[in-house]
């Protein structure tokens, strides 16, 4: 950074209590940490976040945990112990945001729910991320990603045409909770500037995933029929999808009418480009059965690389189908700093995904990402910051209220 002072990010000075585990909640707080907030991840005694036990491991650390917990501090506190609950209350008094993803009612039973903590700190923004929300007939039901995908209709539209649907490879159900959770917290922070008060936020994986249906919901409303799996094709856009090449497949996405004649010229299908029936998206959709086989008959003549060259020259949207390793190694990923290296105290040099949001006109670069924390790495440090004396910390540790850790 050439000796230049780092810009911590737009959320610098914000303290977030992170009582989440697995995916949705940790993703939300990781986003906030990327933006400069201080994230205090409070983990249960024993083995901490469930994902710390998910194989494979790097230097004894779970790949899953490493992927969702950068830029955080780890505290091990037993919230079921009265002294642990008191420690959480003292932390909440200093916090701007609390995020939890327990089932509804768990935090209330611990005496650490919204009403109790907002009475202690009226400025606290309290975000509850749950499977089905704080209300409704499924409120108490357990939920995981595949359940959410199934119940929201998302699973039903994924897969190859004419075959049973399959879940998305990405855990979109869980990730929707993280994305919308972070968005809602930022909105509540904006409101707090005007009101001076915090707010309870109710984010559910169910609502978030259903919201991602977007135009597919409108398609169902408009036609009265369920959208069906289309494979790599699109229900409304033609041509759009995967076509065979000599050595694999090439993705072609003709999302606007202006790309159609360019594509036809690149493919050598001038008759299709000149056909007035096919000049509009509606016309091409009506003649999908004619267009897609014609394209699929041409594309096997060249390799993926040759089609990339031809379609780039023609300014037609296209892509090779990259594996995850190839995607991470792509020059554009490097140019966008989407893969970074950090030094982890146990795992050594780690490659992590980079920050997805950039600020080109920031006063200085943001500091490098901090590695995901070791279990309980920051308990004593953070408790000192809220007034605990060394003797108190040692007494809590001796009673197993903090830093009670099971080593594998």
> Helical segment tally?
18
Task: Please state the CA-atom Rg, rounded to the nearest Å.
Answer: 25 Å
What share of the residues does DSSP label as strand, in percent?
A: 5-15%
Write the CATH architecture name of the largest domain: 3-Layer(aba) Sandwich
| Physical arrangement of strands within the biggest beta sheet | 5-2-1-6-7-8
Oligomer: single chain
Poorly predicted regions are none
Indicate the CATH topology of the largest domain. Answer: Rossmann fold
Question: What is the CATH class name of the largest domain?
Answer: Alpha Beta
Number of strands: 13
Structural class: alpha/beta
Question: What value does the average pLDDT take?
Answer: 95
Measured as a percent range, the helix fraction is 25-40%
User: Any idea what the CATH superfamily of the largest domain is called?
Assistant: Crotonobetainyl-coa:carnitine coa-transferase, domain 1
| Spatial separation of the terminal alpha carbons | 38 Å
| Domain unit count | 2
Please provide a written account of the structure.
The chain is an alpha/beta fold and 408 residues long. The chain folds into 2 domains: 15-212 and 330-398, Crotonobetainyl-coa:carnitine coa-transferase, domain 1 (Rossmann fold); 240-322, formyl-coa transferase, domain 3, CATH 3.30.1540.10. Helices cover 38% and strands 15% of the residues. It has 18 helices and 13 strands. The strands form 4 sheets. The chain has a 6-stranded parallel beta sheet, with helices on both faces. The protein has a 3-stranded antiparallel beta sheet with strand order 9-10-11, with helices on one face. It has a two-stranded antiparallel ribbon with strand order 3-4. A hairpin with a 2-residue loop joins β3 and β4 (61-62). α1 (24-34) crosses α7. The mean pLDDT is 95. InterPro entries: CoA-transferase_III_domain, CoA-Trfase_fam_III, CoA-Trfase_III_dom3_sf, CoA-Trfase_III_dom_1_sf. Pfam families: CoA_transf_3.
